[in-house]
Specification:
It is a single chain. The chain is α+β, with helices and mostly antiparallel strands. It has a domain at 234-345: 3-Layer(aba) Sandwich (Endonuclease, Chain A). Helix content is 44%, strand content 18%. The strands form four sheets. The chain has a five-stranded mixed sheet with strand order 12-11-10-9-13, with helices on both faces. Helix 8 (179-191) packs parallel to helix 10 and helix 10 packs across helix 13. The longest helix has 28 residues, at 213-240. The protein starts with 16 loop residues before the first helix and ends with a strand.
Length: 346
């Protein structure tokens, strides 16, 4: 077979352009190209090259970033198929797409999610691929593996299965020692609306990364950023939906001095308080939840209605949250007047 001979009379229209340029040995065989012919074409000076074991790039020039990503995923899937063939079992890849359960994670995934703080794909020495914990795979070439007990649902970006932002961040931070870059990545995740701070902290906690001092510092900045954004949305909700102006960021006390708690907004004439729950998941979450419930019960026992919202609700349903507050303000007219409380700046 000459170098100009088509791969196979079998049509390739079901493949994307990049999938036609990056094929495994098995895929080539399915299109009529034997392993011996593929090896011949991949010799020095030939028209093809082997970019990873069993994965071929069907042109002689450098691989593009997209080709490197697809090659990494194809290599991962091909290892599974090889193992399944050896055991006599089906690979199951047909049920999960050409890449099985594998997905890009870490810095490569953040670049696909358009993080400005993430290095460009072309500059990355490695591509991290998230796989189930049961997979027996070794890093090879530029491909590294991250194993997970529970696989998240991928997002498809540029045709590539990609880990969700919070998971990709945790996998990136696990390999980074650059405190400045870690802080920039975490802060950008919230500032640009990629995800909520709580979701990021949850993934970092599950990855046992919160013991690293520079990660803790970055998380503090992340939570501060998340709260500031949520407060900004709260201001927009009040002013954009015609709600009365509340007292912002205050502490409530009884006249005798007993502290009742801090709230983000308080409508004194209606005895309605609003609190943004922007807490990060912690090991003592049950104790924190209990303390919050006791505060709420105390305030409501005094006749003060407490509206609880979260950064996510403010981001995804501002109009709905405004309706909740408006309902609480209207209902105040039908309640007994609340006792006088002292309102202090927080």
């Amino acid at each position: 077979m000459s170098h100009d001979t088509p791969l196979s009379p079998r049509p390739l229209h079901h493949l994307t352009d990049v999938q036609r340029r990056v094929l495994t040995t098995r895929q080539l065989r399915e299109h009529g190209v034997t392993a011996a012919v593929a090896a011949e074409r991949c010799r020095e000076g030939g028209p093809w090259q082997q970019i990873l074991p069993g994965v071929h790039l069907l042109h002689p020039g450098p691989a593009t970033s997209e080709e490197r990503l697809h090659a990494a995923l194809l290599y991962t899937a091909s290892r599974r198929q090889t193992a399944a063939a050896g055991s006599g079992a089906g690979s199951g890849a047909g049920d999960e797409g050409p890449y099985g359960e594998a997905m890009v994670t870490g810095l490569a995934a953040l670049a696909l999610h358009h993080f400005s703080a993430a290095p460009p794909l072309a500059s990355l020495d490695h591509v991290d691929v998230l796989v189930p914990r049961t997979r027996r795979l070794r890093a090879t070439g530029y491909v590294r593996f991250v194993r997970s007990q529970t696989m998240p649902g991928p997002r498809y970006l540029a045709g590539v299965p990609t880990a969700p932002v919070a998971r990709a961040l945790a996998d990136a931070v696990a390999r980074l020692g650059d405190a400045v870059l870690v802080r920039r990545l975490l802060t950008e995740s919230v500032r640009h609306g990629h995800c909520e701070a709580g979701a990021v902290v949850k993934e970092l906690s599950q990855a046992r990364l919160l013991s690293r001092p520079y990660v803790i510092d970055a998380v503090d900045a992340l939570l501060a950023e998340g709260r500031a954004i949520a407060e900004g949305r709260l201001y927009d909700m009040v002013r954009g939906h015609g709600l009365p102006e509340p007292l912002w960021n205050v502490e409530l006390r009884l006249p005798g001095g007993q502290a009742l708690g801090e709230v983000d907004a308080y409508w004194r004439d209606h005895a309605v308080a609003l609190e943004i729950d922007a807490r990060a998941p912690r090991h003592d979450e049950c104790a924190l939840r209990g303390a919050y419930a006791r505060k709420r019960e105390h305030l409501e026992g005094l006749g003060i209605t407490v509206v609880r919202t979260t950064p996510r609700r403010l981001r995804e349903g501002l109009e709905e949250q405004a309706a909740v507050v408006r309902t609480a303000l209207i209902a105040a007219a039908d309640r007994e007047p609340a006792p006088y409380v002292v309102v202090l700046p927080r």
